[in-house]
Amino acid sequence: MTRRFLSLLGVFGLLSCGAPGHNLEHCWWDEGDATCEQRFGGARPFCTRFSDPCGVATNYGCVAERPALDECYSPCGGGVPATEDLCGMETSTDESGDGNGDGDGDGDGDGDGDGDGDGDGDGDGDGDAQTSCPEECLSGEYFVGPAGCVPFDTELVVNAYGGQYTTIAAAVNAAATYETTLIKVESSVAGDQVQVSDKHVIIVGAQQSGMPEWTTTSPLAPLSVSGDARVEVSGLKLSRSALGPNDAPGPVPAAIAADASRVYFDKSVIVGLDGVGVQASGNGRVTLWSTTILGFHAGLEAAWGGEIAAVFVSVASLSGAARRCVGVGRVDVHKSILYSGNATSDECDSGGSSDLWDMNMSSPSPNMWFADFPGGDLHVGEDNMGPYLPNFFYDAQPDGPRCDIDGDEIPLMNAYPGADQPL
């Protein structure tokens, strides 16, 4: 949607490096260059981050060349840049300088750079990076939010009206076990129940207009991920309709991550009208960016060791809590909206979460604030004065999403919580 000027109600600072909610598989928060060496060998040995002024996102934050700015380079990881800890390595600038550099910016000419030496940057010298929505990757890579630019080996196409494959399940079955397969979905698909075990697939919407829908009334979950599988999903609506009492053995989530699997969602819609929206169990891990999730019993559920991390998401439930944690399950949510249709209290420890707008604390009729709450469209609705205003606005999260569910830019300061930036 087009961003319009409205009075801002609150301003909050960016999270510090030690704040909760970061993607701990990212080299910046893991072990820096050591993480990159382990994952990519010599192809991408240097660790950087995705926030101004450092540039675009890459898979796990690993790049082929050492970042020019020490503030954008983390050889040691742990959220610490080279300006604070070099692990015995040299800086990229002269520490004895007076700080009057010629700029490290992005345009042409000399600027007032922040470096300690002389730079010949192509820029205006202010060090500001341009946010690009949609995000761009190199050839042979696809951007999926929290996973960054993911390299793939093979590309398959799904089109229910005569594509290479007519179902997502068929394309997943055809994917090689020891390769990463990009699956482009060019049309909506019905009745598709997909099980992924010990494979790596990227499933993305590629319809010419609108978001393709992946729907099913099967007693099984539309997406079930297990074993050591890794799945990235972007630009799709994943929906499981409510079933009759004799159609299924019990409530079933729309998406399940079990065992040691990893699932990443970006700019997607998840609707589970018979159980929960997304469930992580065992050692399963789910990460979501710029996504809306509606469940019947809960939007997000982590059970018995499962973990879910989400940034700029809108999470709702028709008849239960927005978040549900069972056993030692954990659901950490940041810069997001939570809402329960029957005002059930949130069931997870919020110690690892931050900047949450609990819409049950707002009035009147918060479910009317969504475009289509019962149908799972959690875009922010409008009254005659424009979009409803949240209790607070929040700043973007370092190394978090830069584009909302519609591909609109998330402002670095004073962003609307949730998956949608309606202003």
Please summarize what this structure is:
The protein has helices at residues 33-40, 168-174, and strands at 46-47, 62-63, 141-143, 149-151, 154-158, 180-185, 189-190, 194-197, 200-205, 213-216, 223-226, 230-234, 237-240, 255-257, 262-266, 269-272, 276-281, 285-289, 292-295, 298-303, 307-311, 314-317, 323-326, 330-340, 354-358, 370-372, 377-380, 382-383, 386-387.
The level of helicity is under 10%
Number of DSSP strand runs:
29
Low-confidence stretches: 1-21, 92-129
Strand content: 25-35%
Through-space gap between termini: 7 Å
How are the SSEs ordered, and which strands pair?
Layout: H1 33-40, E1 46-47, E2 62-63, E3 141-143, E4 149-151, E5 154-158, H2 168-174, E6 180-185, E7 189-190, E8 194-197, E9 200-205, E10 213-216, E11 223-226, E12 230-234, E13 237-240, E14 255-257, E15 262-266, E16 269-272, E17 276-281, E18 285-289, E19 292-295, E20 298-303, E21 307-311, E22 314-317, E23 323-326, E24 330-340, E25 354-358, E26 370-372, E27 377-380, E28 382-383, E29 386-387
Parallel strand pairs: 5-6, 6-9, 7-10, 8-11, 9-12, 10-13, 11-14, 12-15, 13-16, 14-17, 15-18, 16-19, 17-20, 18-21, 19-22, 20-23, 21-24, 22-24, 24-25
Antiparallel strand pairs: 1-2, 3-4, 26-27, 28-29
